[in-house]
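Why run this: before we spend reagent on co-expression, it is cheaper to look at a predicted model of the complex and decide which construct boundaries make sense. The entries below are exactly what would go into the expression plan.
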Amino acid sequence: MKANKVTIHDIAKALDINSSTVSRALNDSPRVTKKTKEKILNKAKEMGYKRNLLASNLRKNVTNTIGVVVPRISRHFFSSVIQGIEETAYLEGYSVIICQSLEQLKREKNILETLAANRVDGVLMSISMETTNYNHIQELKQRGIPLVFFDRHPNISKTNNVLINDFKGGFDATHHLISKGCKNIVHFSGPQELAIYKNRLQGYKQALKESNIPFRNEYIISSRLMEHDGVNNIKELIAKNLIFDGIFSANDLAAIGAIKYLNEIKVNIPKDVAIVGFSNEPISTVINPSLTTINQPGFEIGKTATDLLLQHIKNQHTSLTTETIILESNLIERQSSNR
Amino acid sequence: MKANKVTIHDIAKALDINSSTVSRALNDSPRVTKKTKEKILNKAKEMGYKRNLLASNLRKNVTNTIGVVVPRISRHFFSSVIQGIEETAYLEGYSVIICQSLEQLKREKNILETLAANRVDGVLMSISMETTNYNHIQELKQRGIPLVFFDRHPNISKTNNVLINDFKGGFDATHHLISKGCKNIVHFSGPQELAIYKNRLQGYKQALKESNIPFRNEYIISSRLMEHDGVNNIKELIAKNLIFDGIFSANDLAAIGAIKYLNEIKVNIPKDVAIVGFSNEPISTVINPSLTTINQPGFEIGKTATDLLLQHIKNQHTSLTTETIILESNLIERQSSNR
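The model came back. Tokens follow.
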């Protein structure tokens, strides 16, 4: 390709200036005036100059790329977080590459190796349901790659996290069911290794306590919270002859499974059983009855996490303290609890 | 980190063999027997040996990484294609990094530069709605990076493509509406620069023709096929006093918008207007009435495209001919056309 053969020296010659000025301009150095930069960039474009990005980045040891690791891109919550990440990163001149662990620790390990090998400038991450061992994460930290967790974070010290107030979310969901007259409230929980599910459960317990409703262990059913888990949870409750009039599910997907199955066996929602989900997936507005849920500000989480990561990328040599930022969720009332 | 300091020489010493044998084994060279490879890999693991993946890959000029470029990860069709890609790539030892163009040509260009700079071994791509200029794609080809398009492909010669039979999909959708007694069938189309939308429109025309229904240009409404476009299309039809009793939408999202708006203004679906979408998004089973649609085999497309890409990656020095593989779609009948 001819275009590739244009060098900074050709540009310097064409403009009758120094090659090092051209190089500085192309690297966006503050030592070159805006006007000169523009002139050089225009000439470079006109002449079809192509930077050897790889060489240039290897030299500068940056790639202007952020790696994002999520359990599944197909979940609305994660795709809305990614939207917040993309918007923020793009404005700052960073590209985003996304990898999914598919909830598997083994894949998550591979991904972190790939991202490190690709020399990403930083990583935004939400861990898998299997991630109970954090060696791969510690290794990434030790390599000095800035890292911010969002939503699902590991139980290790000195990490940057952007979380929502899961305790309050769990409390609000349960309190809402109690306010609707529910006395026997089941909780569909996720793997307890993940702090978010632990905290939602704690919020549930606190809401019961404040209303003097005794906590019953048999009302807590843990699973991976897939749609079929919601179905199975209901079957299990019925098989065990447990009476229930409210369900707080730690995600919408399992709540949707429960709604579909309860509809099938002609249990009236919300009259017989009121249901609250978590995360406000788009399907929750479309299911019949529509699902009351806790809305997580996905876009905001992505934006905040990216801002925090970029601070750490840009100040790698001054050691910033790590921080945890907590964003608030809110309950959206729909038909599934409207009684 | 201590683990990082173990070298191939340490492993060679521990096993009392040649360092170059260790190196070959770690690079999976066919010149080392399976038994020796196993012995070396086990020892390497035991000693906590970590390859410097970047150095090793720069040397071999491979990264074992496949880049995927899609318009939006949040579309079910694309996330199911990506699932097929991940499964296939993972089994072959490749990592997958995903980037989204968000339907913008500018971002798509950036992404291809990032992927090239990250030295991915190959790229699987579905182009944006804005992609009417293919310079960035030609450049990637000229750099010798193997490339396979799926679903949305550019109009350039010598490309590898995995497509579905969009003509037949459009034909089947329209023919189905005609078989349900529809006489005035509107078509929601996408940007005509994309062959998939052109072909769906051609299928629509052919189905009308075979049933001797005259084609009317005012029944074709082109948009970006977002949910709000479906709403606006209906408003436009009503404003223009156009009579219609059937809609074939080139995607589900715009069809969902139409259903929601028609429900709102109390038009009966399917009695007054029957509707068929395209791509079988999960929401199409949940909307009321549920949406008849053309099912695209997303997982299969992803798997086939990855197989094709890996063939090209592995045979880069023998020049394989390019090929286009066409997979079939099928119509799923639901309530929105059940009359």
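Chain B has 13 helices and twelve strands. The mean pLDDT of chain B is 90. Bring this page to Monday's planning discussion.
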